[in-house]
Write a structure and sequence with these properties.
The protein is α+β, with helices and mostly antiparallel strands. The chain is built from 12 helices and 11 strands. Helix content is 42%, strand content 19%.
């Protein structure tokens, strides 16, 4: 179990029982990723969260207030909307200071949160320790977009809701159905955070307009687009354009463009009786046989099989 030391009580602390951890580590629906312990503090006095030897990954999400993180020989300020991921067996100390009565002014979107979440004068911090055979994979999806385990994701209503559902596990009881559902909420939360970090990276890439590039691709589905053309449009070298594009999409520019073409072909096959050779031609493929081979490679079945499956259960 996580070696968490607290010098003041959090509002909620939930430690998964040892008997349940053993089951989670073996069940096929939970062994990939599951929580070990979690909690939330709304402390208005001094609060410390620390570990020296923990086999789990630790996630800290600061909903409001501010604190200090001592980790990897550095001390950094953690503020409202910051996310922290700590690797297993890495010592750290996270300290919250006593809050003051002054209330900060936040964005309009923050006002949509619940009354508890919008108490900007309070320290509100979620923490969770998680492990499993896929824990490192989930963590790496986050860490690759963070600065030494820290990133700003903002105040996310979805994450607040997910964490509250996880904390409610203690009240709902440790039945198999409740626990499996909680595990999948954790997976959903980590996946959403990875997506949010990617969007943040995209928004901070002022020199690269991904939306404009994708708009160019959508408007050019009837023809071919070369890497030279796309890079020139973005006013970048081919190397830097391709590198930046893959960082943001996990795909090469040309493959992304081809995927768009095939998605458009699927739409036409589902909603029209246009001949397959004409769909291919409209997408810039003069050879319908080449188009069919490409379609099958990406979708798993031929265009004809795909069209014929509209009213059946056929899947690739």
């Amino acid at each position: 179990m996580a070696n968490i030391k607290l010098n003041t009580s959090a509002d909620i602390r939930l430690f998964i029982p040892v008997f349940l951890l053993k089951k989670l580590s073996k069940h096929r629906l939970t062994d990939g990723l599951y929580p070990v312990s979690l909690g939330i503090t709304q402390a208005n006095n001094n609060y410390k969260l620390q570990q020296e030897n923990n086999h789990c990954h630790t996630l800290i999400y600061c909903l409001s207030g501010a604190g200090k993180l001592a980790y990897q020989g550095k001390e950094r300020v953690i503020e409202r909307g910051d996310l922290v991921i700590i690797n297993p067996n890495a010592a750290f100390t996270f300290t919250l200071n006593k809050t003051h009565d002054s209330v900060k002014i936040h964005s309009q979107s923050d006002k949509q949160l619940t009354s508890r979440d919008s108490k900007s004068a309070d320290n509100i911090v979620y923490w969770i320790n998680f492990t499993g055979t896929l824990a490192q994979d989930f963590a790496e999806r986050l860490l690759m977009k963070m600065d030494s385990g820290k990133a700003h994701v903002g105040v996310l209503k979805t994450i607040v809701s997910d964490f509250d559902h996880l904390l409610a596990l203690g009240a709902r009881g440790y039945t198999a159905t409740n626990v499996i559902h909680a595990v999948h909420i954790l997976q959903q939360a980590l996946s959403f955070l990875a997506l949010q970090l990617r969007l943040t990276m995209f928004n901070n890439s002022s020199s690269f307009d991904l939306e404009a590039v994708e708009a160019l691709m959508r408007n050019s589905l009837h023809q071919e687009l070369s890497l030279d053309t796309l890079a020139h449009y973005s006013q970048l070298s081919k190397f830097h354009f391709a590198k930046k594009f893959k960082e943001l999409t996990d795909s090469s520019p040309i493959q992304h463009f081809i995927n768009m073409k095939i998605q458009h072909a699927c739409l036409q096959l589902d909603n029209s009786d246009i001949a397959i050779k004409d769909i291919a031609s409209d997408l810039g493929y003069s050879d319908p046989y080449y188009f069919s081979r490409l379609f099958k490679k990406l979708v798993g079945i031929s265009p004809k099989q795909y069209r014929d499956s509209r009213h059946s259960s056929l899947v690739p």
